[in-house]
From TrEMBL:
This is 3-isopropylmalate dehydratase large subunit. [4Fe-4S] cluster binds at residues 349, 409, 412. It is an enzyme of class 4 (lyase). It comes from the Bacteria. Binds 1 [4Fe-4S] cluster per subunit. Its cofactor is [4Fe-4S] cluster.
Length: 469
């Protein structure tokens, strides 16, 4: 095995060939698919008379278009396009022999939630999915890439991708996070400091004592948003926390195979003397609960700060800041705390896991959703929903006035009935605050941690969650 970073080791182990273009033909160990980017890819296979040679390496679910209200999940869906998409995936999985977690299987959910919880995601793997937040799986020490529809076709047909190898940047955060500061705040802080284009051409290796202390679900939150900082992927070196999470899960190795797997997973960690193309270091003590005020994930500030004025920004950031002031209807110099909200959404592949729901429930317990606020909680998978209900979290949310929903992507991107209306402003635990992202061309999104969303729900405005804990 080559020496150096985990990224170098895994890349080299999965290299099939160097193509005439200079790109690497990279073997893909696990291919995840869903209903949005796969129908066209399967159609292209049929047009060429191709098969899927390694169907056991592909796993499918439905997440983007599925309604999250129980009465709307009856088939056929009211939305005929959504129904067509799920039917196409059902038929393709049956035709090509692909494992499919459909609604009601007990394992359906957001693709980046179900693969880790089933033990499909493992250290040292290469993983691809037709979804930009595939970087989530890097939390396990895998290198994972979001790909386009034509690449989904390529992986189905050949189990390989043509890719240009990125450089590796070590993003180090050290120290203990203060109470009320979560993994979501850490990654929003990193993106704020490095910029939404700062990671272009790089893979991010997240390192330092802060990440070492994080749970797997916290690491997934950070890796999930690597793409929002421009990075091709992000990962954390596997360690005993990784192994403890995986042990006993359905697709994790068993018995003697487990011991051999742990030894191999440990060997792919970055070497102590590994060389990086760049290193940046942050102090956890500098991070506070963070909220986005603009139209990119990089336009974020601490909850006690004010929205920056043009003069406070780098020259290259001023044009989009002016666009953001106008779109968001927020003024430079204005405090972000106290900003009124209309909708509060807890869920998504960033923050729809059981630990996210637990933290939000701590804030919701014994409180009431403010008058006029629509607040709802969407578990990231059917398994998460079952676990939350076993703990009684759903009763806490419902007693506080939150809606308790079924698993799906929901209002993260609103390819389903969950949408903002008009210029409503949303406190959201999701990953993107682009214009129109949550289903309305004039809807406005403030990204924050699930606990901060719960705080906004019970107060009716952006609130420092530390005041409620």
């Amino acid at each position: 095995m080559s020496q150096g970073t985990l990224f170098d080791k895994v890349w080299d182990l999965h290299t099939v060939a160097t193509l005439p273009s200079g790109q690497t033909q990279l073997f893909v160990g696990l291919h995840l698919i869903h209903e949005v980017t796969s129908p066209q890819a399967f159609a292209m296979l049929r047009e060429r008379g191709l098969k899927v040679p390694f169907p056991h390496r592909t796993v499918a679910t439905v997440d983007h278009i599925v309604p999250t209200q129980l009465q709307q999940r009856q088939r056929p869906f009211v939305d005929s396009l959504a129904e067509d998409m799920i039917v196409a995936l059902e038929q393709s999985c049956q035709e090509f022999g692909i494992r499919f977690y459909n609604i009601g299987s007990g394992k359906q959910g957001i693709v980046h939630v179900i693969a880790p919880e089933q033990g499909l995601t493992q250290p040292g793997m290469t993983i691809a999915c037709g979804d930009s937040h595939t970087s989530t799986h890097g939390a396990f020490g895998a290198i994972s890439f979001g790909i386009g529809t034509s690449q989904v076709r390529d992986v189905l047909a050949s189990q390989t991708l043509a890719m240009t190898k990125p450089k590796v940047r070590r993003v180090e955060v050290n120290g203990n996070l203060r109470p009320g500061v979560y993994a979501k705040d850490v990654v929003l802080h990193i993106i704020r400091k490095l910029g939404v284009k700062g990671g272009v051409g790089y893979a991010y290796e997240y390192a330092g004592t802060t990440f070492e202390a994080m749970s797997m679900e916290e690491r997934m939150t950070v890796c999930n948003m690597s793409i929002e900082g421009g990075a091709r992927c992000g990962y954390v070196n596997p360690d005993p926390i990784t192994f403890d999470y995986l042990q006993g899960r359905e697709f994790a190795p068993k018995g003697a195979d487990w011991d051999a797997a742990v030894a191999w997973w440990t060997s792919v960690r970055s070497d102590a003397d590994a060389e990086y193309d760049d290193v940046v270091v942050f102090d956890a003590a500098d991070i506070e609960p963070t909220v986005t005020w603009g139209i990119t994930p990089g336009q974020g500030i601490g909850v006690t700060e004010t929205i920056p004025t043009v003069d406070e920004l780098d020259e290259g950031d001023r044009s989009i800041a002016k666009e953001a002031y106008d779109y968001m209807q927020l003024a430079p110099g204005q405090a972000i705390a106290g900003t009124k909200v209309d909708v509060c959404f807890i869920g998504s592949c960033t923050n729809g896991r059981i630990s996210d729901l637990r933290e939000a429930a701590k804030v919701a317990q014994g409180r009431q959703v403010a008058e006029g606020i629509t607040a709802f909680v969407v578990p990231g998978s059917e398994s998460v929903k079952q676990a939350a209900e076993a703990e009684g979290l759903h009763e806490i949310f419902k007693a506080a006035g939150f809606e308790w929903r079924e698993a799906g992507c929901s209002m993260c991107l609103a390819m389903n009935p969950d949408k903002l209306q008009g210029s409503q402003i949303s406190a959201s635990s999701s990953n993107r605050n682009f214009k129109g992202r949550q289903g309305s061309a004039s809807g406005r999104t403030l990204l924050m941690s699930p606990a901060m969303v719960a705080a906004a729900a019970v107060t009716g405005s952006v609130t420092d969650v530390r005041e409620l804990l």
